[in-house]
Every structure is written in C-alpha cells, then in structure tokens.
Amino acid sequence: MSTLPSRWDGVEQRVPESLTDLRGPATGKVALPGHLGWSGLAEYDLVDPLLRMSLYRTVITGGGRSDAESFLNADLLLADWPTLRRGIGPSYRRAWETKITALGHEALAPGWPR
Questions:
Q1: By CB distance 3.0 to 4.6 Å, which of 16, 38, 44, 73 could disulfide with 24?
Q2: What is the pTM (predicted TM-score) of this model?
Q3: What's the rounded Cα separation, in Å, for the pair 64 and 36?
Q4: Closest-CA residue to 65 (of 16, 11, 18, 22)
Q5: What span, in angstroms and rounded, lies between the C-alpha atoms of 63 and 56?
Q6: Is 15 buried (19+), middle (13-18) or exposed (0-12) by CB count in 10 A?
Q7: Residue 44 CB burial class (10 angstroms; 0-12, 13-18, ≥19)
C-alpha cells in the first residue's frame, strides 16, 4: 500500500522568488482554473476583501509557483498579509515569509503568531 505525499512537501519551491514576480490583477474579477477552483468558488471579486482573502489562500495553499505569479498581486498581498498569514497555516507562512522577506515577521506587530 502506498501513502500519499504530504501536502506540505515542497512548499518552499511553490513560493515565487520575489514580490516582483507576482503579476496578478489588482482589480476586477478573477476566475481560477479547474485545478484550483475545483471544490468551491471559482470566481472572485478583488474588491471584496473576504473573497480576495479566499482567493489568495486558495492559490497559496493549493497552487504552484506559476499560479502565485499569475493570480497574486504584490501590493494586495502586502496589504492583506497581516490577516492572511493567520489563515494559511504555519508551513505556508514560514515558507512565504522566509523567501519573501518583505512579508517577514519584522514588519508585523509584536505578538502576532509566527
């Protein structure tokens, strides 16, 4: 019997090299492809903060590097990160904050979970 790989395997390789690689839209509606939007909402209005957080969480936890580069916007990610980081889990949070230092803990308020 074979076992499934952990969903956290290779998380670091799925993080883009820098914020400049994130070329996603800053406005409008975003429709995710089937491999990301297969189990729920497939279209997200970026004006709605809750929908935007859901989109970003889906891409970060379920997508690859090219998905992050295509669907995430650097400015929106920076603005939403203090809230978003609490909903993605420690493995993803560490991987993103380690590789993209602008998201790192030194930019956050004291007492935030690491």
A1: 73
A2: 0.83
A3: 10
A4: 16
A5: 10
A6: buried
A7: buried
